[in-house]
Amino acid sequence: MRALAAALVLAAAAAPAHAADLRPWSGDATPPALVLKDVDGREHRLADYRGKVVLVNFWATWCEPCREEMPAMQRLQQRLDGKPFVVLAVDFGEGDARVKGFLKELPLAFTFLLDRDGSAAHAWRVRVLPVSFLIDADQRIRYSAVGDAAWDSPGVERIVRGLLPRVALRRAGHNIGIARSGEPPEPEAQGAHSWIDALF
What we know:
Layout: H1 2-14, E1 23-24, E2 35-38, E3 43-45, E4 53-59, H2 64-79, E5 85-92, H3 96-105, E6 111-115, H4 119-123, E7 128-129, E8 131-135, E9 141-146, H5 154-163, E10 166-170, E11 175-179, E12 194-195
Parallel strand pairs: 4-5, 5-6
Antiparallel strand pairs: 1-9, 2-3, 2-6, 4-8, 7-12, 8-9, 10-11
């Protein structure tokens, strides 16, 4: 694992420095299961977030593009404060001590999950870092980004807002109607990233 991580650091350094696009997903819209513990040992299931838009981001502390895009994720989350939107940052192959150390240097307010053995990355067919998936409120993959993305850009924010569930109250009978917004090419690496093909 140590030798692999070193090779991926070199891949990150050699990667292009432009931001990735957020691309509509054209593969199977059903996301793989995601059941992981956070840095405090609490278990999280992607299925528990049904009804919210979820940004699932695979990253690692040694991945420079991963670290560089996280403040933009935080700004996006802050702009959507109070909305049904969450960020799940899935750390690849590291322990809670390393991730907690990273968070002391760069305090971030979203949820950090630990994929200690890489099984989640394998299930999601992650081959570079960072890679991200936007899941809609009905638990369908709608967009992906391979490489670091400009998460706080107006275009990305507009896409995320378009996925938020719109709740309309019907006065007659006080019924609540929920309208879901509007599927995740196999991802093509675009932004700065680190290859992890050797794992699989």
